[in-house]
Amino acid sequence: MAxxxxxxxxxxxxxxxxxxLLDLSKKREIFQDLAPLLWNSFGTIAxxxxxxxxxxxxxxxxxxxxxxxxxxxxxxxxxxxxxxHPDTRTLFLNAHIPLYLYPFLNTxxxxxxxEYLRLTSLGVIGALVKVDDTEVISFLLxxxxxxxxxxxxxxxxxxxxxxxxxxxxxxxLDDVGLRYxxxxxxxxxxxxxxxxTMVTTLAEQPSxxxxxxxxxxxxxxSDNARACDALRNCLPEMLRDGTFNNCLRDDAxxxxxxxxxxxxxxxxxxxxxxxxxxxxxxxxx
Length: 285
Prior knowledge:
Layout: H1 4-10, H2 17-27, H3 34-40, H4 44-53, H5 66-84, H6 89-94, H7 102-105, H8 112-130, H9 134-141, H10 145-155, H11 158-173, H12 175-182, H13 185-204, H14 208-221, H15 225-234, H16 252-266, H17 280-284
Helix pairs in contact: 1-2, 2-5, 3-5, 4-5, 5-8, 8-11, 9-12, 10-11, 10-13, 11-12, 11-14, 13-14, 14-16
């Protein structure tokens, strides 16, 4: 079996790169400290970025082939490894590498190559937010990550929707993220509208995993007094009337979250919403 060092070295050779990408992506869990090796090896990150940029021309019009999608997703899997590692995460952010993935998240084709591309790209962002780090959240909020996640939450596959909703959830769980979303009516409305649409869809096509993240997003929004006031009148009725009782039957944690959410929006002494959030109930209703 080729060593990690040998495979990483082969990434810089265009003739050997495709097989090296495949081998490394398959074995990235067994190679210890692969992320620092990828980051610190001469030309390696440049080679991975070259793989990403090379398929931009196939995004619009959508002509990405399954083989090209698989190849770039192997490169993305290695970037996810770098994004996950504590020694390389900050370096990864400081180089603004997540921005190279945003064109993939901006695609709308529902064919398998594009869905796989979006899902793998979301996996890189998901790896960044998995560790609670305000620096990561602040960086992402300075970019277009919220609109891109909302787009996937509306039109992606169930798995892509779940990862995108998880990313939004992790952003909301950070105080900086919650404050950002609740600062303006437009941001709150954008998130609330997509969450509401997803709840309606889940009533017809249940997914307990996706519902769990949606409820957690709503519960976190209810921690903000102004957002909680807006949610009183615009929280989907299906979350109140027992529609999802069967779906949540075996999930005690999510049932507890839903009960807390309903308690939060049903009463308590909340300050009146400021003018910036006035009218949200009508918009989201």
